[in-house]
Structure formats: structure tokens, C-alpha cells
Amino acid sequence: MTGNFPPGAELHQPADRRAVWVRRLLDITVRAPTLIACELTALGLLGCWAISYALGGAAAFPPHWYYFVILVTAIRFGWQGALSTALIAGVLAGPLLPASVAAGTSQPLSDWLTRAAFFIAIGQAFALFVSLSRRSLTEEIARLRVERDVLRGLDLGEFRIVYQPIVTLDDECVVGVEALVRWNHPVGGQLEPTDFIVPAEASDAIVALGDFVLEETCRQVARWKTTALHGIQRFHVAVNVSTRQLEDPSFRERIAAILATTGIHPAWLHLEVTETALIADFDAACARLSAIRQLGVRIAIDDFGTGYSSLAYLHRLPVDVVKIDRSFVSGLSDPGRAHVILELITGVANRLAATTLAEGVESAQDAARLLELGCELAQGFYFDGPLEAEAMYERLMAAATSRRDRARS
Ligand code: C2E
Ligand code: MG
Ligand code: MG
Predict the structure, then answer these.
(1) Are 123 and 84 in contact (CB under 8 A)?
(2) How many domains does the structure of the chain reveal?
(3) Among 18, 170, 183, 227, which is most buried by a count of CB atoms within 10 Å?
(4) Whose CA is nearest to atom 15 of ligand 1?
């Protein structure tokens, strides 16, 4: 997906352009055909020998120009190329080069052996440096491309939201939805979040994308509020939030502004954060989440149980909903470990007065066991997969009709 730029497109920031030029220079060196690169290396080594000889030998002028050839081969061929070139250079600048051409004296053994050792050591160090910087440079370029691609996609309206119903386990009533983003990419086709969220999280594009998801979802729920959700008191919409969004100092204000413009009750908005997003700087993340929670927004811990030391910090987290990761839920048919862990998580969440929501419920058996364990809410293919906005609207309308029928009878 990172290669999906329109041909000839330019990156705008000067730092981006610099990175592209460095990469192009590296590309030219690296892309030279192997035969031509080998011939140029041989020519370079012979040229160095010829110059040293012409200047009168090693005593008249120490043959240090071999370093240039060794460093270029380190870029082109890596450590193996640098080693072979350094060994050949060591021989050419050693036994094959007199100390003085005029006097016909040869160099002392220790002199040329020391020089050969330097050729090898410096060539190897440079090859290592090149391989490390090439890797980080490639990652940097990939990050810049995803960032620009996401921003372009947002401008062109290529992203949309699908909604997965969240139901009560006891009577399977729809009490919420999770907003999940999808990308209709012009080249890559329909992309799932796993294809682009992680690369986007490495750049500021995730902040723009997160804002779009939050705003679009709140607008959609505001539309449903006047139709399919009319008169409903208990409902929530869960929106996934990345670490970068949380770290953005203006995030809280933007949430408040979106709630104000769409008229969504703050308690209807649940922000889902993963354990991993919190661990890096736990205290700061707690403070930010508490500030957001003061708006009346609820906080859900997503994929719970997949991070580290969950139980150690859970009691300090401002948390309203614990979303049990599907790896524990789908392991339910095995009455062993997964069941014990699940029992533990639901117990802890209940003690903390947090609502438990099980993700990835795929069978009636899973649903029944979760209910037995005291889990309140669930989400999964057994009930519904993610639905397009229109299909979700139909689902909510059907739920409203059956509610009305139940109330009448
Ligand atoms: P998540 O928040 O844990 O979302 C649940 C994922 O599980 C969704 O995948 C959903 O389609 C899938 N799922 C639901 N029920 C079942 C089931 O019964 N079985 C199985 N096997 N899977 C089920 P999706 O939509 O591909 O999203 C993957 C992840 O991408 C999400 O995991 C979330 O972390 C991230 N993501 C999605 N949308 C956004 C977004 O707008 N912003 C951010 N930051 N992340 C998002
Ligand atoms: Mg989620
Ligand atoms: Mg999850």
C-alpha cells in the first residue's frame, strides 16, 4: 500500500524532500547493474594502484585513496563487497606497491599489514552504518507515504465508517455500536483497519483520521437519534482512539466541540483505548483520560488482557467499560485456562464497577457461558458483523419496532 502514490507526486515539506533526495542517491548507487558495478570497482582499484605507482610508491605518498572504492562498494554490495575490496586493496597497496619505485625497495611487512587491517575495519564499520541507515530511511519514507496517502484519502472522501452492534447478553437488545473505519482505496481496493491503522499511527495522519471518525460517527448517531433511536435512553457509540490522539493537547477540546455541534449526550460516547496505548506513559495517559472523562464521556479499555500487568494498574485507571479480548472469548470451548482468565477478568471488572463487554462472540455457546460468568454486554459475528450505516439503521429500526410490540403486549 505504501507504493500507491500517483507517479511524479511531490512531497511538500522540505524535510521530506531531503529524505527523498538522500534515498535517490542511495538508489542510484544501489541500482547500478552488478556487472557494471564490479567493473567500476576493479577500475577504481587499478586506478588507485596506478596513481600510487606514478607518484613514486608508498613512501612518497601513502595510498589512502583506496578508502573511496572500499566505501562505495560497502554501499553497493554490503559487508561482503567491502571485505573483498579491502583485501584486494591491501595486496595492491602492500606487496604490489614498492616503498620507492625509483629505488626499487619494498614496504616493510608491518606497514602494509596495518594498512590492510584498517581497510578491512573501516570498510566493515561503514557497511554496518549504511545497512542501519538504509533500513531507517526506508521506514521513514514508508511512513511519509502513508501519511500523505491517508490525508489525500480524507480529502477525497475515501474513508467511511461501518457499525458493529453491541448487545446485552441476557436479552440481545442492541444498546450500542462500535464505529470501525474502512478505506475504499483507489488502488488497493477495500482496506481493513489492520492494513493502514498501524502505519498511520506512526504519523500525525492518525489524528486527522481519528477526528474524521469521531465527527462522522457523532453526526451519524445524531441522525439516528431523531429516527431509529428516538426516545431511547440507553445507547452508546464506541470510537477507537490511538495513543497519538490521546497525546494531542487539543483532543479534549475537539471532543467537547463535536459533542456540542452534534448534540450527542457525552455519556453516549465511549472512547476505546488499548492497554498498550496506555502503558508507555501510564500516569500521563491516566491524567488525560480523567480530563476527558470529566466531560461525561465514558472510557473503555479495548482488547483487555492482551497487554501487560493489566491487573496491577487497572485499579488506577479511569475506566467504565472493560472489553474482553476475543482471544479469551473464542477459547471458551476449551474449559481450561481461557475460562479461568475470563472468570478473573469479569470478577475484577465487576468489583471495579466497570461494565464487561466481550468481543468476538461467535456462537450461542460462547454467549451462554459469558452470561453465566456475569458478563453484561457482547459484540461479535454471532449477533452481527460490522454493518454499513444504512444496514445499521434498518437493524435499529427493527429493534425499535420489536420494542414497541413488546411494550404493547
Ligand atoms: P477492535 O477495536 O478490537 O475492533 C474489533 C475488531 O474485531 C473489528 O475488526 C471487528 O470487525 C472484529 N470482530 C468483531 N466481531 C468479531 C467476531 O465475532 N470474530 C472475529 N474474528 N472478529 C470480530 P476491524 O474492523 O478489522 O478492526 C480491527 C482493529 O482496527 C480494531 O480492533 C481497532 O483496534 C482498529 N480500528 C478500527 N477502526 C478504527 C478507528 O477508527 N481508529 C483507530 N484508532 N483504530 C481503529
Ligand atoms: Mg475497539
Ligand atoms: Mg478489541
Answers:
(1) no
(2) 2
(3) 183
(4) 380
Q: Whose CA is nearest to atom 33 of ligand 1?
A: 240
d(CA 52, CA 61): 7
Task: Check whether residue 100 and residue 193 sit in a common domain.
Answer: no
Residue 164 and residue 218 in one domain: yes
**The domain containing residue 122 runs over which residues?**
32-132
Same structural domain, 192 and 127: no
Q: How far apart are CA 394 and CA 403, in angstroms?
A: 14
279: domain CATH number is 3.20.20.450
pLDDT in tens, 196-242: 998 899 888 999 999 999 999 999 999 999 999 988 888 999 999 99
Average pLDDT for residues 78-91, to the nearest whole number? 95
d(CA 305, CA 326): 10
User: Is 10 inside a domain boundary?
Assistant: no
Give the cell for residue 294: 470529566
What atom in ligand 1 is closest to the CA of residue 206? 44
Are residues 167 and 92 both part of a single domain? Answer: no
Mean of pLDDT over the chain: 87
State the distance from the centre of ligand 1 to the C-alpha of 370, rounded, in angstroms.
20
* Tens digit of each residue's pLDDT (9 = 90 or more) over 318-334: 899 999 999 888 765 56
Q: Residue 218 corresponds to which cell in the numbers above?
A: 457523532
